[in-house]
Amino acid sequence: MILKKDLLVFGIHRDDFKIFINNKLALNYGSQGQQRTAILTLKLTELEIIKEEIGETPILLLDDFMSELDSNRRKSFLENIEGCQVIITGTDDIKDLNSDFKRIYVDNGSCS
């Protein structure tokens, strides 16, 4: 591992993906929702690969990702995580969640 002024200059954290939608770079031409959907698709694929490798479904952790998804994309995503243990954090209530999901609200350090 090589350090340069206390910063790692090599490693997986430096890798970038180029994601294309209809042969156009999503970073430049995709909406925020399309870009977020592409990343979530990669996360779900990673989840499946890990599940195949270890024989267990890992816990999926997501932080404030729903804000840029429209209701159709949220619904589709939620359908694709059924059967998985998922922890989602965010500042807004996710109205598309059905009653099968457990919600924990944190306000000033208190959980309800």
Mean pLDDT equals 81
Separation, N- and C-terminal Cα atoms: 44 Å
Question: What portion of residues belong to β-strands?
Answer: 15-25%
SS element count, helices: 3
pLDDT below 50 for ≥5 consecutive residues: which ranges? Answer: none
Count of individual beta strands: 8
Strand order of the largest sheet: 1-2
Q: How much helix, percentage-wise, in residues?
A: 25-40%
By helix and strand content, what is the structural category? Answer: alpha+beta
Name the overall outline: globular
Count up the domains. Answer: 1
Q: What's the Cα radius of gyration?
A: 17 Å
Could you spell the SSE succession in H and E letters? Answer: EEEEHHEHEEE
Biggest sheet architecture: 2 strands, antiparallel
Please characterize this protein's 3D structure.
This protein has helices at 26-29, 32-54, 71-80, and strands at 3-4, 7-8, 20-21, 24-25, 60-63, 86-89, 106-107, 110-111. The protein has one domain. The chain is globular and about 45 Å long. The strands form 4 sheets. The protein has a two-stranded antiparallel sheet. With 112 residues, the chain is α+β, with helices and mostly antiparallel strands. The longest helix has 23 residues, at 32-54.
